[in-house]
Specification:
- By secondary structure, this protein is of the alpha/beta class.
- Helices cover 39% and strands 25% of the residues.
- The protein has a 6-stranded mixed β-sheet with strand order 6-7-8-3-9-10, sandwiched between helices.
- Helix 3 (95-106) packs parallel to helix 5 (140-152), helix 4 crosses helix 5 (140-152) and helix 5 packs parallel to helix 6 (170-187).
- The termini are far apart.
């Protein structure tokens, strides 16, 4: 479980996150929604330690992440898998080398054990046999799957996905969605997904957290989104009068 309490973050005197309180549970896909500039990415960067919050606390299974030493934070980060928006693969490395990198940096596995783990993760995301390919030889969907393989190679307890469907066609996006959902349930991870894709939210989301101008304006089960009494959420979901008229017909 990850618990965020009273999180505040400002840049140049302007509050970007305003007293965020949220709990993210294991085995669930927690969808963080919001328009561009709503604070989604800043929240995720605070949670993984890339930004230090001005005030508030972030607890990883009851450990106060903000109060930990550098060594303590490093131990938590070893349990975190991250799927970046652009996959963030190294162009000069093969697919296998990209996926193996976290193992080389953070594990004590032997070379044979690392190879076996890479083989498993690539097979798990449907990329068996693609070990020798370079990122330039991969489609957008394959790059996202490769990024996901790297994110899970250390068998993380916490999985963060930043706009995993960005730039993908609807069919490929659906494949990535279901793969994330499957891995979340199989590994029992705390999975947090930043997205503005409502198709993804309704397809795999368990719980939704809606940010509006740095405020957590609504949170609850995905099944309750369409009946939520929150005007800013309705505007975001239905994208204005035209979509509302379409839904009501």
């Amino acid at each position: 479980m990850i618990r965020v309490e009273g999180l505040i973050k400002s840049f140049d005197g302007q509050e970007v996150l305003k007293r965020i309180n949220a709990t993210f549970e294991r085995g669930k896909c927690s969808m963080v929604l919001g328009a561009s500039g709503s604070g989604k990415t800043v929240l995720m960067k605070c949670m993984v330690g890339l930004y230090a919050p001005d005030r508030g606390r972030i607890y990883y299974d009851n450990q106060d992440f903000c109060a930990l030493s550098l060594l303590g934070k490093r131990r938590i980060r070893r349990k975190i898998g991250m799927l970046f928006q652009g996959a963030a693969l190294f162009d000069s490395m093969t697919l296998a080398e990209n996926v193996m990198l976290p193992l080389r940096l953070y594990s004590t596995m032997s070379s044979a054990e690392m190879k076996d783990r890479v083989d498993y993760c690539l097979e798990r995301v449907g990329l068996a046999g693609a070990h020798a390919k370079y990122p330039s030889q991969l489609s957008g969907g394959m790059k996202k799957r490769a990024g996901l393989a790297r994110a899970i190679v250390l068998n993380p307890s916490y999985l963060f996905c930043d706009e995993p469907n960005s730039g993908l066609d609807p069919q490929t996006a659906l494949v990535i969605d279901h793969l994330i959902k499957e891995l979340t349930e199989d590994f029992g991870t705390v999975t947090i997904i930043n997205t503005h894709d409502m198709n993804s939210v309704f397809e795999i989301g368990d719980v939704a957290y809606f940010l509006h101008k740095g405020v957590l304006a609504w949170q609850g089960p995905v099944s309750e989104i369409l009946t939520a009494d929150e005007p800013t959420l309705k505007d975001f979901i239905f994208a204005g009068t035209l979509m509302r008229r379409f839904i009501s017909q």
